[in-house]
Amino acid sequence: MIPIQTETIALSISRGIDFLEQRQKSQGDFSCVIADNEALTQNPREDPSPFFTQHILASLKEVAGPRAQNMSTKIRQFLLRDVCPGYIWKFWNKEHPQSTLILPDVDDTSCIACLLEPAEFPSHQTRAMLLGNRNSVGLFYTWILPRLRHLLRPQTWMPLYQNFKNPRNIINTIKFYRLLNNSDPFAVDTVVNANAVLFLGESSATKPAINWICQVVATATEASTDRWYQSKYPLYYAIARCKQSGVNGFDHIIPILTERLKVEIDAFGACNNKVLDTALAANVLASFQPSCRQLDQAVEFLLSNQQPNGGWPISVFFHDGFNPRVSFGSAEMVTAMCLEALSKFTKTRFSD
Q1: Which segments of the chain does DSSP mark as H helices, in order?
Q2: Which of 51, 73, 136, 333 has the fewest CB atoms below 10 angstroms from its CB?
Q3: Is 70 exceeded by the pLDDT of residue 312?
Q4: Sequence-separated (6 or more) residues with CB below 8 Å from residue 143
Q5: Any domain includes 250
Q6: What is the rounded end-to-end Cα distance, in angstroms, of the chain?
Q7: Residues of the chain with pLDDT > 70: what percent?
Q8: What is the pLDDT of residues 17-36, one digit of tens each?
């Protein structure tokens, strides 16, 4: 294998930044696409959401330079404008015509809150809302609703009232979820719990979620324990982010997941021949095994699949929880994930 040159990666990152700058909207957010098949080609349509935008912000944190910082500033401003009472977030942004029909959720809230600066929002409110949104064994429900645990946290009472005070919205929400067969208010999902740990950190309150996620990885049941992501790659990426933020409860499963990823990477450097899966795997390996040859192969695959416009092709990131034919993706988010992987690779291989 010919050694990867730092100049090659630098040029690729610059082209990727060009692509993202051209695609960032005036309000600071980026596009999300929903479609009726895995390839995101059947009836694709825009689905405005802060979720993919916040993932781009997370990836840009690893990319050096003023252009990445400028895009990041615009994203944070957008996310702060899109907040719900109690400093929690929904998957659809406020401009979405059906935004009043869905509930706030732990996944969006955790991912967004962990990226904001402490001075930008009252994080104690967000923490209280999430800690009250757990089941009897301490796992985090996916949907944020008034729960019994919230009764122990008076600071959550007014935000919950503000979010659910409109009877018409509540009725419409019930109808909406029944229409989609997505009416389980007690659902728990692994990636969602991992992202809750990412924001809340390691504590007695998050230990049940950490233990459950470790059990899922140890038993290789990742795809069946999350109705949305249905894949090991987003979970491993979420675990890596937790570890990098100081969560040590996942230490004993890190060797398990890294070895699995190394096996998944084929002779061409790809995971499932998908750019996004490969980028997620490369990000994890760059964090924990930066000198392995599989990481070099994955980086070569990413470099060879960059498109003429500087971006990378769109790929499904998650599915509708109860209709797997409905898929969600973003070429901008895939591009940001690739830039994150390339930036991490550069730091581990070429830094003094």
Answers
A1: 6-23, 50-60, 66-81, 106-113, 123-131, 157-164, 167-179, 190-200, 207-218, 232-244, 254-264, 275-288, 293-304, 331-350
A2: 136
A3: yes
A4: 103, 104, 105, 106, 185, 187
A5: yes
A6: 23
A7: 94
A8: 999 999 999 999 999 999 99
Beta strands at 323-329 and 316-320: parallel, antiparallel or unpaired: antiparallel
- Helix, coil or strand: residue 317: strand
**Can you give the pLDDT at residue 303?**
97
pLDDT digits (tens, 9 = 90+) for 81-103: 999 999 999 999 998 888 888 88
CA separation for the pair 235, 251 (Å, rounded): 15
> DSSP letters of 83-106?
PBTTTB--SS-TTSTTGGGS--BH
Is 236 within 8 Å of 244 (Cβ atoms)? no
Q: Give the pLDDT score at 186.
A: 85
Which CATH number goes with the domain that contains 249?
A: 1.50.10.20
**Cα–Cα distance measured from residue 223 to residue 242, given in angstroms and rounded to the nearest whole number:** 19
| Domain interval for residue 247 | 12-350
d(CA 270, CA 282): 10
User: For residue range 171-186, what is the model confidence (pLDDT) as tens digits?
Assistant: 777 666 665 555 578 8
Specify the amino acid at residue 165. K
Q: Is 332 inside any structural domain?
A: yes
CA distances to 285, 299, 304 from 4, in Å: 17, 9, 12
| Average pLDDT of the residues of the chain | 93
Q: Which DSSP state fits 2?
A: P
Burial class (CB in 10 A: 0-12, 13-18, 19+), 96: middle
- Opening angle at CA 340, ends 336 and 341, nearest 5: 120
